[in-house]
Structure formats: C-alpha cells, structure tokens
Amino acid sequence: MDYYSHSRRKRKEQFRNEMMMFGAFVFFYPMIISVHMGWSPLIGIAGYLLTKYQHKRAYFILLLAYLVHVDLNLALPLFLSLITIYLVQFLVFTQFRRFFMNKYYLPIFFVLFTDVAYYLVLLVYDFVFNTTSITYNYWLIYYVIIDLMFIGWYRMNNEQ
C-alpha cells in the first residue's frame, strides 16, 4: 500500500513539474521569438501536439494558449493558426493516415503540411487584406526544417 501511494505521489509530482516547465515554455518562448528572428515559431509541432493531446485537458489548454500567444506576439491574425491546424487535420491528415501505415512518417507529414498550409493561408490573408504579416523569404524554409527536426527528435525520444 505504501508503495502504491509513493508511486502515485511521484507521478503527480512528475506531472506537476512537467506542466510547470511546459507552462514556462508557453509563456516565455513566444516572447523570445518575437525578439529573435532565428527562433522558429513551431506552429507545426504545436499543431501535431494539439491533435495528439486533444483529450488531455491540461496539455490542450496550454497548447491553445501557446498558439494564441504566438499569434499575439508576432502580430499575426488571431486564431488563424488554430483554423489552419484543424483544416489540415480534417482535410489532409485523415486521408494520409489511411495512405501511410508507418506511424513514424505521419507526424512528419502532418507538421510539413501544417507549416506549408499555414504559410499559404497567411499569403492569402495578406493578399486579401493588403497587409504584410510576414516576409516571405528563406526564413520560412528554415522554420519548416526546424519543425521537422524537432518532430523527428520528439518521435525518436518519446514514442517507440
């Protein structure tokens, strides 16, 4: 009985520490990327994690807060990232889930399609409203590569 309660306390403490670290990341990382252009906004990874953890309330709320925080700090259209992520999930990801049986490539393709779709939707938004949300140059390719590297690292370390 004592072992069970010790194990349960340890899991709760681990979850609390994980949420504190994730919350600090959600709060501070968008501020850092608004100052330094070389830091990727990680929209594709946030989208993958949002679809993966949509039934776990704490992760879901923190990921929603992260996406809204990124949109606000980078002066991007509010909720455009959320709309794009869910469009990619429902229109593209469900089809690729049937097409690819290898679960290692699904997150990589989801992140790739989410990033490309988000930047295309931003391009359409800029054209329709005659604004410039972001500059379209090689930094966007760099951001996609960083997202793909991080999702590959995440898949190698967290999911066997």
Major sheet: size, sense and barrel closure?
Answer: none
> Structural class, from helix and strand content?
mainly alpha
The residue-averaged pLDDT reads 86
| Proportion of residues in extended strands | under 5%
The H-and-E topology, N to C, reads as HHHHHH
Q: Cα-atom Rg, whole angstroms?
A: 17 Å
Helical run tally: 6
- Would you count the extended β strands for me? 0
What is the number of independent domains?
Answer: 1
Which runs of at least 5 residues are low in confidence (pLDDT < 50)?
none
- The proportion of residues forming helix, as a percent range, comes to over 70%
Instruction: Tell me, briefly, the overall form.
Output: globular
First CA to last CA: what distance? Answer: 31 Å
Walk me through the structure.
It is a single chain. The chain contains six helices and no strands. Helices cover 79% and strands 0% of the residues. The mean pLDDT is 86. The chain has helices at 2-35, 43-52, 57-73, 80-99, 105-129, 138-158. It has one domain (2-158).
Key features of this structure:
160 residues; mainly alpha; 6 helices; 79% helix
Question: What is shown here, in short?
Answer:
The protein has 160 residues and is mainly alpha-helical. It has six helices and no strands.
Q: How would the blueprint of this fold be written?
A:
Elements: H1 2-35, H2 43-52, H3 57-73, H4 80-99, H5 105-129, H6 138-158
Helix pairs in contact: 1-3, 2-3, 2-4, 2-5, 4-5, 5-6
